[in-house]
Amino acid sequence: MTQSQHADVGGGSSGSRSRRTATAPFQVRGRFFTAIVLQVAGAPEGEFYRTLDTVLAQAPHFFTNAPFVLDLDQATGIGPSFDFTGLARELRKRKVTLIGVQNGTIEQNRAALTAGLITLQGGNDLPPDRTTSDGAAAEEDDPASRALLVTHPVRSGQRVFSDMGDLVVVASVSPGAELIARGNIHVYGRMRGRALAGVNGDSTARIFCQSLEAELIAIAGLYRTSDEMDASLRSQRIQAFLDEGALRIEPLK
Amino acid sequence: MAKIIVITSGKGGVGKTTTTAALGAGLALRGKRTVVIDFDVGLRNLDMIMGCERRVVFDFINVIQGDAKLGQALIKDRRLENLSVLPTSQTRDKDALTREGVEKVLEELRNDFDYVICDSPAGIERGAHLAMYFADEAVVVTNPEVSSVRDSDRVLGLLSSKTRRAELGEDPVKPHLLLTRYDLGRVARGDMMKVEDILEILSIPLLGIIPESPTVLSASNVGTPVVLNESSNAGAAYADAVSRLMGEQIEMRVLGPERRGLLQRLRWRTA
User: Is the pLDDT higher at B5 or at A87?
Assistant: First the structure.
């Protein structure tokens, strides 16, 4: 039995060539998660923990299981020798998990890395009403409640991304354009580009269009190209959805 | 204060330079002080189509880099007193264009002219980007065939997002569609796209339909903008387009190629 020379995620070892099997130990995917950012004014001490305890008491479930990031932009009191490990431990006592820091200086970042935290870049702010501490549960909002509405034609080469929920386009979408949404996608016009719904793995997402002329449609990673679509569906009003792991496209009556 | 109009397309070879020359000359004929600028650094053509290639001393890049004053580079057209040409360099390339340099030149031109027409190079890279960046209006030149329409669509997306007006949240660049090399026979046979189909995809106002015409090639050979040729159907279509650009409502007529005269047809047979 010959040893396979290259690292292969599949496990087969019979024969001289190892095959990529269907049961791979893991799959790599990109995914969006929402983190809570604490922008600290100085080194966390007594006052910091007292205020944190008050906030946590107001909405105990809101913060559980949420990844926390420390924004060091205004953190003047935190030097290179700051005890991030201790801070993480104190937070864990309060059931708050610190995963990383942001906007730190090089020394601050180094200290954070030593404590097992990561340094994060970028990130988009969520609209303020999302972080009200009125006892809202930690579950994410219903995706359909945060629809991104587009009323102008989506031109070739443009990409529209709705990371909060649905995407509704009341215009046509040109070939070479991309629509990407966490939730459903609706196109009240001619859909000629690519539509990718349920990109965070939501297999209940659907795609609706007034006239199917798409180059590619995908739901939660399962896709079909124009070539593989039934000719009878072309230019029809359709909905696409996942049914027992298969992508189905059906006309809307 | 001048209106800055970019003549763009995405696709190459559709008739941007021909259109720049024709619209520029057409506007000058109507009494507007007009300047046409070549943004295709390294592959310059506008000066040839305008017939002034033998009078180029300084160019757009010289002015940007401070080697010459704008007045030294501008070439006044000999036929039309309202028309000037700012040629570009043939020896340099698009890296010589800078946003600040272009802005400075356009600001200077704005004061002295009514219309500044920018002849964009093909593509969507630096030269095309800078040609459209400061525009108030855009003429998107499109041939009635699929790849040209696709590229024009892409350019429309860029006009609505990568221009100064878009970035500052001002009124968007006003787009106009100009169909060129339109061949009635091929449209009838189904080889070329119909006007309605193109308008459905691009969804912008139609400025004009320029028929395929041998007079366009003759015009560029002699260095005279085709709009100055009174027996050319393409020229007549460009004149209509100029009127519409100035805000007039002209009925859209779709012209075919010129009919060969009787004498021409006899000569053809005996040759």
Answer: B5
Which residue in the set A153, A176, A177 is minimally distant from B203, CB to CB? A153
Q: How far is B221 from chain A (nearest CA, A)?
A: 35
Residue A174, min C-alpha distance to chain B (Å): 7
**Distance (Å, whole) CA A35 – CA A97:** 10
Please give the pLDDT value at position A9: 40
pLDDT above 90 coverage of chain B, percent: 87
Q: Do A176 and B150 touch (CB under 8 A)?
A: yes
Task: Give me the total of CB pairs closer than 8 Å, taking one residue from chain A and one from chain B.
Answer: 30
Q: Which of A98-102, B197-201, B253-257 has the highest mean pLDDT?
A: B197-201
Q: Sort strands B174-182 and B137-142 into parallel, antiparallel or unpaired.
A: parallel
- Rounded Cα distance between A34 and A163, Å, is 11
Look at phi and psi of residue B175 and say left if phi exceeds 0, alpha if psi is from -120 to 50, else beta. Answer: beta
Residue in chain B lying closest to A192 (CA): B201
Interface with A, mutate which of B9, B149, B201 (most A CBs under 10 A): B201
Three-state secondary structure string covering chain A? CCCCCCCCCCCCCCCCCCCCCCCCCCCCCCCCCCCEEEECCCCCCHHHHHHHHHHHHHCCCCCCCCEEEEECCCCCCCCCCCCHHHHHHHHHHCCCEEEEEECCCHHHHHHHHHCCCEEECCCCCCCHHHHCCCCCCCCCCCHHHCCEEECCCECCCCEEEECCCCEEECCCECCCCEEEECCCEEEEEEECCEEEECCCCCCCCCEEEEEECCCEEEECCEEEEHHHCCHHHCCCCEEEEEECCEEEEEECC
Instruction: pLDDT band for A14, please (50, 70, 90 cuts).
Output: very low
Report strand pairing: B115-119 vs B3-8: parallel
For the cut 70, the answer to whether the pLDDT of residue A22 exceeds it is no
What angle do helix axes B233-245 and B16-29 make, rounded to 10 degrees? 70
Say which residues have a Cβ less than 8 Å from residue A118's Cβ, sequence separation at least 6. Answer: A99, A100, A101, A112
Query: In Å, how far is A242's CA from the nearest CA of chain B?
Result: 30
Nearest C-alpha of chain A: how many angstroms from B125? 14
Assembly ipTM:
0.81
Q: Out of A157, A158, A174, whose CB is closest to B201?
A: A174
Number of C-beta neighbours around residue A80 at 10 A: 12
The answer to whether B150 contacts A153, with C-beta atoms less than 8 Å apart, is no
pLDDT of A108 reads: 86
**pLDDT tens across A131-156, in order?**
444 444 444 555 446 789 999 999 99
- Encoded tokens for A85: 């490990």
Identify the pLDDT of residue A130: 42
